[in-house]
Design brief:
alpha+beta; five-stranded mixed β-sheet; 9 helices; 35% helix; 20% strand; binds 6-O-phosphono-beta-D-fructofuranose; binds manganese (II) ion
Length: 347
């Protein structure tokens, strides 16, 4: 009846009003960053990156329509009429960072070379604009991963050598996961915080401050179809996990594989586990699948700041000295005790 509908409407208004009041009181990105001692210019740079990510989030939510919109809504996306989402995402971040003034140069998984921006910019940004992009075909998890370092005074803005700094030099790293909700994981070296994008008002709200990766786990993540290519330590380690309660680990393990690092690492941050993309013997010239600058280093920083470990099998990921911007590394990231156990197989 009409009466029922109007009651329902009143109730909905009441819920919306209460939610809005509650959301507006939640802690926002800016105040957490200030509390963590981030300098104002870095905060402004992070907000610039996140403005780009909000746009990507919108495109991603448009799904198959994004290619169409990509060629009509944005002046900067030209050329082909149907762009793929990873190309659109790269263009969005490249444009917004180039125009911001804060950035001297960027390196992106989608660009062959370093892209020079403002010669007077104080920062360098590296990013994977859309990690796990093959998941776009199946409407599954994808995300943007980024890291920021200082731009050395001596560098020319098109000089790639300034990007060849170990992960220990990163001043901020994060990812935005485009899932059922859009979530940001961010660290400036004072813990890792998780934020959720409030799509009604537009801000990232702090939903899990100082997230901690549980030190133990019974969950692992590896692409088992590559098993025959793994080296002996990984073979032995995974065999022992598979043996469950009957093997030396004396417990049953569960396995998960999102096929987007950003989704797998989000699970590790949320409830622990070990995520591995080890070296394998298929192509000896490749040290692994994942990229040091765009994937391994930012995730290593986030997980270490949450109490987990991130190793290549032979050393800490963040201490690897890059030799080229698109360098790959083997990756073992996750719960402290599980990564330590895995590493004991390498000895
Ligand atoms: O960017 C590389 C990547 O898509 C990661 O996000 C993901 O973890 C991995 O590759 C998936 O690899 P595979 O194709 O072996 O499942
Ligand atoms: Mn990727």
């Amino acid at each position: 009846t009409i009466l029922d509908v109007s009651n329902l409407y009143k109730k909905t208004c009441c819920i919306t009003h209460t939610t809005t009041r509650y959301l507006l009181r939640m802690k926002r990105l800016n105040s957490q960053l200030q509390e963590d001692g981030a300098p104002m210019e870095l905060i402004l740079l992070l907000r610039t990156i996140l403005a780009g990510c909000k746009e990507i989030s919108f495109r991603v939510s448009q799904g198959a329509l994004a290619g169409v919109l990509g060629s009509t809504l944005s002046e900067n996306v030209q050329g082909e009429t149907q762009k793929k989402l990873d190309v659109i995402s790269n263009q969005i971040l490249k444009d917004i960072l180039s125009e911001s003034g804060y950035v001297k140069a960027i390196s992106s998984e989608e660009e062959d070379d370093v892209v020079p921006c403002n010669p007077n910019g104080n920062y360098l940004v590296s990013f994977d604009p859309l990690d796990g992009s093959s998941n776009t075909d199946i409407n599954s998890l994808i995300g943007t991963i980024f890291s920021i370092t200082h731009a050395p005074q001596w560098m020319d803005s098109d000089d790639p050598s300034a990007f060849l700094q170990p992960g220990t030099q990163i001043v901020a790293a994060g990812y935005v996961l485009y899932g059922p909700s859009a979530m940001l994981a961010l660290t400036t070296g004072r813990g890792t915080h998780l934020y959720t994008l409030d799509k009604t008002h537009g801000g990232f709200l702090l939903t899990t401050p100082n997230v901690k990766v549980p030190v133990q786990t019974a969950e692992y993540s590896i692409n088992a179809s590559n098993q025959r290519h793994w080296e002996a330590p990984v073979q032995a380690y995974i065999n022992d996990l598979l043996a469950g309660t009957e093997g030396p680990r004396e417990k049953d393990y569960n396995m998960r594989w999102v096929a987007a690092m950003v989704g797998d690492i989000h699970r590790v941050l949320s409830r622990g586990g070990i995520f591995m993309y080890p070296y394998d013997k298929r192509d000896p010239s490749k040290a692994g699948k994942l990229r040091l600058l765009y994937e391994a280093n930012p995730m290593a920083f986030l997980v270490e700041q949450a109490g987990g470990l991130a190793n290549t099998g032979t050393g800490r990921i963040m201490e690897v000295m890059p030799t080229e911007i698109h360098q790959r590394v083997p990756v073992l990231i996750g719960s402290k005790e599980e990564v330590e156990t895995c590493l004991s197989y390498y000895k």
